[in-house]
Protein 1
Amino acid sequence: MMISRTVKFGAVVVALASIPSLAFAHTGAGETSGFIHGFGHPISDLDHILAMVMVGVFAAQLGGRALWLVPATFVLVMAFGGALGVMGVPVPFVETGIALSVVVLGAVVALGVKAPVAVAMGLVGLFAVFHGHAHGAEMPDDAGGLAYAAGFMLATALLHVAGIAASLLIGKAGAHGGQVVARSVGGVVVMAGVGLLSGLL
């Protein structure tokens, strides 16, 4: 049942995020290029990948409404952060905030934190501003803005779905075994985040 819900959630997210890209796919090189650049940005940096996957794992660990509310909150707030980046509105400590998101989200997974859904949404929303700002600030000048946003939103949503799916598959190993694996992965992500903060990665 849980895997079925995850598949349905993933399909809805992909469909919704694809609407803008489909609308702009045939209107010019700027829009097409924008979508490609936007999609590539979240999956080209280790910090973005680790944080996005951890959001999905965190949502799966919480279960229930958090399974879709937590990732959806991240994507929507990230879009807001992206708009700030495109408009040149400064957000302090963006790179530090992104690296901290890897550490904190990894720690949340490693410790198996069972936060209330609202708290989880607030936490991921805070970090989403930094990730979104970085995406928006690095948008190429010749890219179509909406198509670029659709690209990075879709890539982010897919990374969330990957985290959720991985967590559910790990959980099939059994309650105890699955928790050990998930927490170990979270611990590795924390170490990677510390490496990003210190400039070693």
Protein 2
Amino acid sequence: MTYIRTLRYLFLFVVMVCLGQSCVKNDPGSVPTYIHVDSFSFYPSPTAPSDAANTHQINSVWAYYNNSPIGVFDLPANIPVITNGTGVLTLKPGVSVSGLNNFMAPYPFYKDDTSTFSPQPGKTIHYIPKTTYFSASKFISISSFNPSTGTRFTRVSGTVDIQTNLASGYGFITLNAPIDTLSEDSSTVPFTIPLNADAYIEFDYKCTIPFFVGLRGNLASLTTKVYLAGIYPSDHWQKFYLSVKDFEAQYQATNYNLYLKASLPAGQTTGTVMIDNIQLVYFD
């Protein structure tokens, strides 16, 4: 009898487990709909100045459903949304702050993509979110390397100046050993950075050698120069987002100059840095 009761309990346990699994599989509220996002589509802002660069490098997405966080995903991404009702899906474009791939954040100047979401449990929906600059974004062009304006940089050390590629309109530094191994350059027109406000310096680059970017704060006769980021070689054009809010909060200078420094690594006899569309973006 004990043996028979044991078999009976075992049978009931197996049935309950099977029924429970069946309920999970058939409950659409527990099966995610996947939103597949390859990249963001970026469109020019109608309120941005005509010389504002519209290049971007959005490499992550911050996802929310009805204002509740789903998670942060590298692009391309499959975003799971578990719901059985229609709601609002919000996708925030994210970037690598100051070139740090382990420090991604929603970019404060790019608009969120918001759409009505209707679940299709078990299916994958391909979606292209859209973004642009917020209309409140302000821009200061540091240099776009147009032939008419020149580089807007001056050499402060080394033997090589930044030059402008007249055909394509970008700046470049070419170094050749043994004589030309260093170029350090400063923007010629100082610019202001608002205090306690989001502010980034954006630029596009392509290079065969590393280079550094920094700021010099100018306060009366005092100056402070700090290099804030180093940039690795890249065989294709990329976008860099340099956060300058903390630098401004620390030094609170009257105005600032951007510094660029390139030097040949040991054992390398030649190298080039190409740079374009340098602009400060900020909120008042």
